[in-house]
Design brief:
single chain; 338 residues; mainly beta; 5-stranded mixed beta sheet; 4-stranded antiparallel beta sheet; 28 strands; 1% helix; 45% strand; globular
């Protein structure tokens, strides 16, 4: 049965279904959890990156957590991913991205790390900036290609999408028409060469493995994009979270966010059925799982919504929260089927 992992600024939550309800278990209380990944080669193995305490892992489907044994040079782990194609010793090859921007690979579940230093030589690096902390920037997303093992896409906030064709040994700089304020990058095993980007400036996509890009923002009122998910059963169906700007996406006083859907060549369409009004809603994070074609999950604050019809309509999950859970800023979502 699918488990839902939610990272919050204040803790890590695993949701497990019990009859008609979803029961929440809180771990890493007080930590600034930023990113999540599930090992597709061993679904009991999961990872959570934090801004203040490095990278953590679980070997029992999120019941207990411990720091990975290998030490990264930066505590702020802002992106984590596991290769769907490469594995060693029964574990998927692990990738971690940090603030300041640096990329690391582990072939042993985080016991040892190798930095891919060529990322530091990208010509545009001198222009990378993260506006809330303008003296720095970070790796926001790591997307291993689901078809070609050596292909890798890294999103820098704020810098753009960088492409490697040799497992991170060398890098190509951001391309024309890709977005610079990268937030989420997705691919799909049934759509070789397709890469999708949700960013502060809008949506961009590539049909040739990141060599060239085009933008598609028609039909959306909101162009500051945060979450992005692709239907496991149809790579032409996407759902994105849009807001008027960063303040509306992440600030309670200005909050405004909506979900939009694009499917089979149609334009972007606003999604409303079963979802809250855009005004007062903060940016959604979203996810899908390969075992559930046609099903999307999206979360804003502590509210989680599920669509069983490819994103057309939604229903809020009935979640039992512990009384002492006070955090509400959700930063990432991942799904597992242990």
């Amino acid at each position: 049965m699918t488990q839902i992992y939610l990272a919050f600024d204040g803790g890590l939550v695993v949701l497990r279904r019990q009859q008609e309800k979803w029961v929440s278990t809180v771990s890493l209380s007080g930590k600034q959890c930023q990113c999540l990944a599930i090992d597709p080669h061993r679904p009991q193995r999961s990872y959570c990156g934090t801004f203040d305490a490095g990278l953590w892992c679980s070997d029992d489907a999120g019941v207990s957590w411990q720091p990975v044994s290998g030490v990264l040079p930066h505590d702020a782990v802002m992106a984590v991913s596991v290769s769907p194609l490469e594995e060693a010793g029964g574990l998927g090859v692990l990738w971690a991205g940090t603030e300041p921007s640096a990329l690391f690979r582990s072939d042993d579940g985080g016991r040892t790390w190798q930095e891919k230093r060529a990322l530091q030589a990208i010509p545009s690096k001198s222009t990378w900036r993260f506006p809330p902390r303008p003296w720095t920037h970070h790796v926001r997303w790591i997307e291993p290609d689901p078809v070609v093992a050596d292909h890798l896409y890294v999103g820098i906030e704020l810098g753009g999408v960088m492409r490697s064709l040799d497992g991170g040994e060398s890098w190509e700089d951001r391309k024309a028409n890709a977005q610079h304020d990268c937030h989420t990058v997705r691919t799909h095993p049934a759509a070789p060469g397709f890469v999708y980007e949700a960013a502060g400036g809008g949506f961009a996509e590539s049909h040739d493995g990141g060599a060239t890009w085009q933008r598609d923002d028609g039909g959306r009122r909101y162009h500051y994009l945060w979450g992005l998910a692709v239907d496991p059963g149809n790579p032409a169906t996407l759902v994105v979270s849009g807001s008027p700007g960063p303040g509306a996406a992440h600030n309670d006083q200005q909050a405004a966010a909506a979900l939009y859907r694009r499917s089979n060549g149609s334009g972007w369409q606003l999604l409303e059925q079963g979802l809250p009004d855009a005004q007062g809603t903060r940016a959604y994070v979203s996810a899908t799982h390969r075992a559930e074609p046609g099903i999307f999950y999206a979360a804003t604050r502590r509210d989680v919504y599920r669509s069983a019809d490819g994103g057309v309509s939604w229903a809020q999950l009935p979640i039992i929260w512990p009384d002492d859970a006070t955090f509400t800023t959700v930063t990432a979502m991942a799904l597992a089927a242990p």
